[in-house]
Amino acid sequence: MWRGLWTLVSRAARGPHSPRLCTRQGSGYRAPGSGATIFALSSGQGRCGIAVIRTSGPASGHALQSLTAPRDLPPARKACLRLLSDPRSGEPLDRALVLWFPGPQSFTGEDCAEFHVHGGPAVVSGVLQALGSVPGLRPAEAGEFTRRAFAHGKLSLTEVEGLADLIHAETEAQRRQALRQLDGELGDLCRGWAETLTKALAHVEAYIDFSEDDNLEEGVLDQGGSPWGWEAETSGIQPPQVLLLSLSFPPSTADSEVRKLEVALGVHLRDARRGQRLRSGAHVVVAGPPNAGKSSLVNLLSRKPVSIVSPEPGTTRDVLETPVDLAGFPALLSDTAGLREGVGPVEQEGVRRAQKRLEQADLILAVLDASDLASPASCNFLDTVVIPAGARNPNGSRQRLLLVLNKSDLLPAGRSDLHPDLPSHLLLSCLTGEGLDGLLEALKKELAALCGDPSTGPLLTRSRHQHHLRGCLDALGQYKQAKDLALAAEALRVARGHLSHLTGGGGTEEILDIIFQDFCVGK
Amino acid sequence: MSCNPSFGGIGKGHLMREVDALDGLCSRICDQSGIHYKVLNRRKGPAVWGLRAQIDRKLYKQNMQKEILNTPLLTVQEGAVEDLILTEPEPEHTGKYRVSGVVLADGSKVYAESVVLTTGTFLRGMIVIGLEMHPAGRLGDQPAVGLAQTLEKLGFVVGRLKTGTPPRIAKESVNFSILNKQTPDNPSIPFSFINQTVWIKPEDQLPCYLTHTNPRVDEIVLENLHLNCHVKETTRGPRYCPSIESKVLRFPNRVHQVWLEPEGMDSDLIYPQGLSVTLPAELQEKMITCIRGLENAKMIQPGYGVQYDYMDPRQISPSLETHLVQRLFFAGQINGTTGYEEAAAQGVIAGINASLRVRHKPPFVISRTEGYIGVLIDDLTTLGTNEPYRMFTSRAEFRLSLRPDNADSRLTFRGYKEAGCVSQQRYERASWMKSSLEEGISMLKSIEFLSTKWKNLIPESSISSGKSLPLRALDVLKYEEVDMELLARAVPEPLKKYTQCRELAERLKIEATYESVLFHQQQEIKEVQRDEALQLPKDLDYLTLKDISLSYEVREKLHFSRPQTIGAASRIPGVTAAAIVNLLRFVKTTQQRQAAMNRVPKTDQQLHDTDRLEESQL
Q: What family name appears in the similarity comment (chain A) (predicted)?
């Protein structure tokens, strides 16, 4: 069943997935009776000069102020330059043009804010995440801005002609995107979590609705461990063991599951490596034996003379870092000392640092001199760095590595099969630039896997993901604290709503079905 | 009361409070007729408390009849209804016919401006005991066959449901001494908002007893399945009020509870709740006597199953008027529900709307956001049901707002103003309570001390004195162990006066418990209400509508359920997002057209005035 409309929030209660905020809010910026405030990237996905992020709803002003603190709200409908920073960490995000449209004179008729930020994926994702952390804000649903505008009479009927098709297309696209995103590991995880929660909720709901009135028997008995029913209150005085049982019922069935889920969610959220990479750049480390042309490659990729280049081996002794844009992805490119032994203490330290950097690398660009593959330094590098990187480490993942054979200009023409045992590699001449396109293409593929490819538009869904997972986790925290079982169930409903927003499905009927499958309920 | 001798329960108690808030009768009568009052779910939070009582059948009947027969302007006529009197429909409303009365079994006619049908299990009712089936609405009463045929002929989509009742046992033949005894609450909590107490003291109330089934019961059921046609039938029975047979079949090798409930103060019958059964009578007796405490039990009346017709409730609107026949209202089991409380909830709404309809007033509809009654009717009218529908608290998405304690503030004022169904006395009581609560809450918000001071004032509380933070009295009241009594002892001025009314003190405590969550729930409620405010035209012919792009499947669904609002339409399974937007567009156009229409009479009036002016000038 499609459970939508512009008030997907309204589902929040039925299948709650709007942000429930733990903080108590003054009514200052939230007129009673108003809905949630939504935000989204309004310009196209992917790299662009300027990206526009929009919010709509009563907390828009608050959001704008939170991101531009300590400045006041800009005058209405006037573009102002402001420094945006993350309200949680205070970390600067971007210098951006912001616009403030108090309702009803705005696109949607509600209070709106616009952030015109620099179009890099890191900036966009940073601002979206910062907005997600503002109380009262949640990512917009497909077409939700338009629907709100429609609801407030801001669009004429002719303008709305195509809206249904649009929404159909958007929800379809979003569904497909969600499916794509949810295919694989994360999807399985989410579905598993949602099932766990549905089951936990069904048990709590069964306990509320049937344990006393209808002598809910078997299911609860099995899990509670002893007969349970009216006799608990037989004398009006609760025997202590009965009281204990009553308090430990949801724990014994739902609670242990919920606790496990909490841990899993926490681990998943802490593993925000991908998001971080996108924000601060992936660590790309250029390594290789001395004089293979690492520094030349760094200079070529960064289009500026970062490293001193000389024919003398061991020119680079320390780790040199430079932020670069690699095929549209932010990256932190590190030039390292050539790996060799038996040199002076300064270079030795450089080698040690290079090795340490290699361990932390998200991606290694291994550079060898194509004309010098047989040398001991090259062989040693192949054996100690390139081959081990291809092997799986204990947690099953591989170190990402691109093998680049530099100085292809020195090779005799027509010699393409250099070495039969060599792992897959790319030929490059830093001198002539030949092979650079191939390298960039390969880099793009690797970085896309590392950071998520912004051109397929996962930015928004990723922040939605985070938003809902965090919302779920918050709600589980409230579940644990709640002494009132109705409040505990409400917290579980909220938590499950967040997950079902990622996986779909999950109405009351689903809970009831589980209740009647698992328990014999009857008066 | 033709089945269980009890009223209320979890979810059902909520409905009773709401019925009472609209001045429906059952709660007040239960406060005069109960013999064992007990609130269920006491430890699970006030939002899910279930008011419940064992009721004396005889007293209930007497008190109810007295109340009804003493209602001014009400004529009571008894007789079996065989047929409906139908006339031409009113053109300004949808519907193929209009009802103008009923024909009784003796051929006499009763004319009426509107008619409410509450057929219970009587429509083509069929009683089943063992392999015997015979037509009856309930034991000893004739079924309504003619009426069922009339409804079917009119084109109503009819379904079939089943339910059952346990055997009755002679009280003096039960050995209670070896069974678990359950005593009532002290003090008893009344069902009605206008009662401070119930008619009977806790010490004069009767206990209930608990026993269990055992493997021998399972054996008897399993060995005799071939003698049990009710169980084999495909008719849908409830999953939550199952017969002992279906319990044994679905959950084998388990022990099931059987509550032994008194049928009345001086009744010599015991109602074994949980033992609903359709075996042949002699086997029922055999089964009963292998249960602990019932070894020598005498069966007075066997248990039996009932199968009956119901009308798919998607054929009625939220005012409970049928789409097909104008001014005909359905309430209770005819709509596929089970239980007295569900029936009472529909009864009060059908009654109110039957009267409003006659007076040409807009229908009185309760939304999902306002009450369990709204949830019940919205579920029925948008989703339909294929098993007897029963209320649960988990069906209500706004459970924390729709509590038994605040039904009056949710419904009484609307009932008073819009339906005129609420007495002055009740209205004044609800108004007083509302203003006292508002005053109390703002008072509790205004008192603020540091947590260390609160800890000193109320040492019994678990307030942490580690960090010294300012805390409002309302926040202190949220602690489980703090109640108004304790709070008022700490801050007698100005809180003492709020402890003088027990109900007020309790309600303040409950409001505090849910305060922070309710803030968010209020916003969601507003959003749902925004959808509910978008009315779909009632006379829309979805099947032929041209200027709207809808798939045939969606058209059929809308045609059948006839949702009244965009909100209800969006809850119908299979109605897509795009369809909703198209409908929205339609609503907006209609609204614009209506607004334009409303301007027309004004122009007429002006023209008229001008004419008059000209006349006078002449």
A: Belongs to the TRAFAC class TrmE-Era-EngA-EngB-Septin-like GTPase superfamily. TrmE GTPase family.
Q: How far is A4 from chain B (nearest CA, A)?
A: 6
Q: What is the pLDDT of residue A420?
A: 65
The most confident of A67-76, A178-187, B132-141, B268-277, by mean pLDDT:
B268-277
Q: How confident is the model at residue A519 (pLDDT cuts 50, 70, 90)?
A: low
Q: What is the DSSP string of A179-225?
A: HHHHSSHHHHHHHHHHHHHHHHHHHHHHHHHHTTTT---HHHHHHH-
Q: What is the pLDDT of residue A398?
A: 66
DSSP letter assigned to residue A160 = H
Instruction: Summarize pLDDT for A185-226 with one digit per residue, the tens.
Output: 566 677 788 888 888 888 888 888 877 655 554 333 233 222
CA distance A224 to A235: 21
How many Å lie between the alpha carbon of A381 and the closest alpha carbon of chain B? 59
What is the tens place of the pLDDT at every residue in A85-135? 988 888 888 899 999 999 888 888 899 999 999 877 678 878 888 898 888
Tell the CATH superfamily of the A1-28+155-271+455-523 domain.
tRNA modification GTPase MnmE domain 2 (1.20.120.430)
**Tens of pLDDT, residues B560-572:** 888 888 888 878 8
CB-based contact (8 Å) between A237 and chain B? no
CA distance B399 to A484: 13
- Residue A129 is predicted with a pLDDT of 84
Q: Number of C-alpha atoms within 13 angstroms, CB side, residue A46?
A: 7
Cβ separation B527–A35 shorter than 8 A: yes
Topology of domain B424-520 in CATH is Arc Repressor Mutant, subunit A (1.10.10)
pTM greater than the 0.80 cutoff: no
Q: Parallel, antiparallel, or unpaired for β B115-117 and B328-330? A: parallel
User: Is A212's Cβ below 8 Å from some Cβ in B?
Assistant: yes
- Structural tokens at position A11: 């589902």
Tokens, residue B321: 């008027």
Q: How far is residue B543's CA from residue B539's CA, in Å, rounded to a whole number? A: 12
The CATH T-level fold of domain A281-451 is Rossmann fold (3.40.50)
- Residue whose pair of structure tokens reads 């004195």 in the numeric block: B465
Q: Where in chain B is the domain with CATH 3.50.50.60?
A: 6-395
Closest CA to B402 of B42, B31, B9, B11: B11
Among A208, A215, A512, the residue with its CB nearest the CB of B44 is: A208
Q: Which residues are registered as beta bridge partners of B180?
A: B210
CB contacts < 8 A, A to B, total: 220
Q: What is the CATH number of domain A37-152?
A: 3.30.1360.120
On chain A, the residues whose CB falls within 8 A of the CB of B522 are 32-33
Domain at B534-598: CATH architecture: Orthogonal Bundle (1.10)
> Cβ contacts (< 8 Å) between B523 and chain A: which residues?
9, 30, 32-36
Which of B392, B480, B527 faces A9 most closely, judged by CB atoms?
A: B527
In this prediction, residue A263 has a pLDDT band, given cuts at 50, 70 and 90, of: confident
CB atoms within 10 A of CB B186: 11
Instruction: Give the residue range(s) of CATH 1.10.10.1800 domains in chain B.
Output: 424-520
C-beta atoms of B395 and A523 within 8 A: no
Lowest mean pLDDT among A127-136, A148-157, B116-125: A148-157
Residues from chain B that touch A4, judged by Cβ atoms under 8 A, are 570, 577, 580
SS3 assignment, position B108: coil
CA distance B511 to A292: 74
In the three-class reduction of DSSP (H, G, I as helix; E, B as strand; rest coil), residue A394 is classed as coil
The chain A residue lying nearest B592, using CA atoms, is A157
Q: What DSSP string runs through B384-445?
A: --SS-B---GGG-TTTTTS-GGGHHHHHHHHIIIII--S-HHHHHHHHHHHHHHHHHHHHHH
* Closest by Cα among A287, A351, A299, A293 to A324: A299
